[in-house]
Amino acid sequence: MPGGAHETLDALAVTAPDAAGATLALHRDAFARAGLDDAWSRVIAMVVQPGVEFDHHQVIDYDAGKARALSAFIEDEPALVFEAHSTDYQTPDNLAQLARDHFAILKVGPGVTFAMRETLWALAAIEREWLGGDDGFIATVLGVMRDEPAHWRDYYAAGAQLDLDLAYSLSDRIRYYWTHPAVQRACADLLARLDASPPPLTLVSQHLPRQYEAVREGRLDLRAGALLQDGTAAAVRPYLHACAA
User: Fold this and answer.
1) Which Pfam families is this protein grouped with (predicted)?
2) Residue 7 pLDDT > 70, yes or no?
3) Are the beta carbons of 234 and 115 closer than 8 angstroms?
4) 7 in a structural domain
């Protein structure tokens, strides 16, 4: 399911090599029947399930042993690699192992926007402690989500856990609201207030410890936008390292 599983997961089935082979053969034949052999020569990957997924609050980690047969299958197709479905939230070691096992295209989406939301929440906490006031930014974001539920109502169930899911679900349906005008204004105001009155490093250490280290070492400016960019980029760096290893 794109965007994470709706149900709570305990285990996940890996794509069977026979299924991968059947999919590949069907597509190869379809291209040939349509006279698209030249286009087929530009196909570089096929999407499979290597046994990684996430639901609202937990992650199914990659198990190389369970994917060994699938990994071996693609070795007989020298022009192709695998695209791994839903590698969000995998550990750096898991990502590196996926790349070594021929899952060379690592799909990620909510994992990056979750890191952005997490950093914005931390900046909002810094603002509250440093400049006073209430959680206006967070209240604006969650208020827009409740007023316009189209992007999350098929994912989150009503009930006691809804508040938790709206803010913290790994499916990160918040990502569809960042372009909303009211949310954009609230975000711009938050960053502007912190830039106009930079917080003490003790608060940055409390809420954004990785960015605090980077500021102390001179690798990062103490600007709200820079802190936000670095917090978001932290979710991407493991993918860069995994694919460059």
Assistant:
1) GatZ_KbaZ-like
2) no
3) yes
4) no
What range does the domain containing 89 cover? Answer: 17-107
CB 50 within 8 A of CB 62: yes
Task: Find the distance separating the first CA and the last CA of the chain, reported in whole Å.
Answer: 29
| 94 and 175 inside one domain | no
Residue 34 backbone class (left: φ over 0; alpha: ψ -120 to 50; beta: rest): alpha
Q: What are the backbone angles phi and psi of residue 8, rounded to the nearest 5°?
A: -70, 130
As a whole number of angstroms, the distance between CA 48 and CA 99 comes to 14
pLDDT at 63: 96
Per-residue confidence (pLDDT) for residue 54, from 0 to 100: 93
Residue 126 lies in a domain: yes
Taking phi over 0 as left and psi of -120 to 50 as alpha, with beta for the rest, 54 belongs to beta
Hey, what are 214's tokens? Answer: 């980077």
| Cα–Cα distance, 160 to 180 (Å, whole number) | 26
Q: Which two tokens stand for residue 193?
A: 């207030």
Using a pLDDT cut of 70, give the percent of the chain over it. 95
Band (134; pLDDT cuts 50, 70, 90): confident
pLDDT band at 106 (very low <50, low <70, confident <90, very high): very high
Does the model's pTM come out above 0.85? yes
151 and 191 co-located in one domain: yes
Tell whether 197 and 228 lie within a shared domain: yes
103 & 143 share domain:
no
Nearest CA among 52, 47, 51 for reference residue 87: 52
Q: Give the mean pLDDT of 217-223.
A: 97
How many independent structural domains does the chain possess? 2
